[in-house]
Amino acid sequence: MNLLKRCIYGFSIITLASMNVQCKSDKKSEQASQDATTAEAVTIEKSAYGTTPKGDKIDSYKLKNQKGMEVDIMTYGGIITSLKVPNKDGKSEEVVIGFNNLEQYTKDNPYFGALIGRYGNRIAKGKFTLDGKEYQLAKNNGENALHGGPEGFHRVVWTAVEAKGGDVATLKLKYVSKDMEEGYPGNLTVFVTYTLNNENALDVLYEATTDKKTVVNLTQHSYFNLSADFKKPILNDEIVIDADKLVPVDANLIPTGQLTDVTNTPFDFRKPKAIGKEIEAKDDQLIKGKGYDHCWVLNNQDKGYRFAASAYDPTTGRFLEVFTDQPGIQLYTGNFLDGTLPMRDGGTYAHRTGLCLETQHYPDSPNQKSFPSTVLNPGENYKTKTTFKFSVK
Ligand code: BGC
After folding, report:
1. Residue 125 in 3-state DSSP?
2. Using an 8 Å Cβ cutoff, are 77 and 112 in contact?
3. What is the pLDDT of residue 19?
4. What DSSP line would sit under 224-235, residue for residue?
5. What is the distance of C-alpha 142 from the center of its chain?
6. Collapsing DSSP states into helix, strand and coil, what is residue 21?
7. Can you say whether the dihedral through the CA atoms of 335, 314, 83, 165 is positive or negative?
8. Which of 156, 164, 196, 283 is the most buried (most CB within 10 A)?
9. 148 lines ligand 1 (CB under 6 A)
10. Torsion of CA 252, 217, 371, 247, to 10 degrees
11. Ligand 1 atom showing the smallest separation from residue 293 Cα
12. Per-residue pLDDT, 38
């Protein structure tokens, strides 16, 4: 009996002890997996940003990862108001041009950080024809229509339909552009999803459907200054654009209809070249653009989503790579920044202190039969993705 008791007691001790060990190790692994989740989590946080003059309440969402990158996006214009990434010493700093209040964005904003639609870039004389019917858009850029019209998608209020964190943080914005809004046919339902991951990449996914034949060309208009010193022009940035051809333009920045070879021109960025190296060259296209303000014909269009362009700031080591499935990319070197718009903390944005890399279809495609089509029909899904990936080297 004694022996039996002792055996049971001993067994219980062993069982309890092993349960305890098991329990402890479960706790440990639970803790470890919690740590892993916390360590890897990309968070999203909502806050109030302000109220527009029309009385719309605007929210801002901060997407933040564990690698020092954070992006602030507001529901007004789907605008990226801030984007911070580390330099080569690990210091995270602001790299996009922006204002420090909503009011300024609703006043004078040359598309800083904004979502652009329904048609990014220019449409000649603001006119195009679909199925024999001519549509007249507002002329907001001399004789031409630019970036979807005076209000476009950059001055409207988007609805956040999804905001969640986790392995990645996702902000899905929605906007319904009414039939004939800014002169474009069809009710267009648009979703733009910003996703930040832990590899310092920000994806922008554009989706749209229409109930009438229309044209669509959506893009993102952030002005990057990778040096984080907004008093400094972006001329030392080394650019690569994977394009053998350019879409040359006339004096009003409307495509001539040809696609020209970049070889032996200041537009050859197939190997890294500083923006400032040839920007002042006596080149007809540079003169017309007042610098670089052109769309390149990206290579490997049959591959779909692929590397398109990069920018590298040698002083801070920041490196931005752009990937897209679009046929073109507009490099705009902030030629119209003229020292009139306020910086966040004093001073003004001077000539060429930011650069845009706008993935898109070629300008004026609705009027250029030889360019890839930008027509969207009812029943079709417009879906395109661009990634801005940051690293250092
Ligand atoms: C255009 C420029 C225009 C600028 C407005 C760019 O996308 O290519 O010509 O002046 O947007 O900020």
Report:
1. helix
2. no
3. 37
4. B-TTS-TTS-GG
5. 26
6. helix
7. positive
8. 196
9. no
10. 40
11. 8
12. 58
- Ligand 1 pocket, mutate which of 332, 352, 356, 357 (most atoms under 8 A from CB): 332
Cα 30 to Cα 25, 26, 165, 285: the distances in Å are 8, 6, 20, 62
C-alpha 185/C-alpha 170 separation (Å) is: 30
Q: What is the pLDDT of residues 128-172, one digit of tens each?
A: 999 999 999 999 999 999 999 999 999 999 999 999 999 999 999
The answer to whether residue 294 is catalytic is no
Residue nearest to atom 10 of ligand 1 (CA): 336
Distance CA(338)–CA(56), nearest Å, equals: 30
Write the DSSP symbol of residue 305.
S
Tell me the whole-structure pTM to 2 decimals: 0.90
Residue owning tokens 């733009």: 192
In this structure, what token pair is assigned to residue 315? 């002083």
Please compute, for residue 255, the number of CA atoms within 13 A of its CA located in the half-sphere on the CB side: 26
CA of 308 to the centre of ligand 1 (A): 19
In short, whether 330's Cβ falls inside 6 Å of ligand 1 is yes
Write the DSSP assignment of 22-48 as a string of letters.
HHHHHHHHHHHHHHHHHHH-BEEEEEE
Residue 379 CB coordination number (10 Å):
8
The tokens of 1 are what?
């009996």
Nearest to 47 by CA among 28, 72, 25, 69: 72
Element (H, E) at 221: strand 219-221
pLDDT (tens digit per residue) in 299-329: 999 999 999 999 999 999 999 999 999 999 9
**Helices and strands of the chain, counted as H and E runs:** 3, 27
Residue with tokens 């004789």: 143
Cα–Cα distances in Å, from 317 out to 89, 311, 359? Answer: 9, 10, 23
**φ, ψ dihedrals at 102, nearest 5°:** -65, -40
Which entry of 221, 294, 321, 361 is annotated as an active-site residue?
A: 221
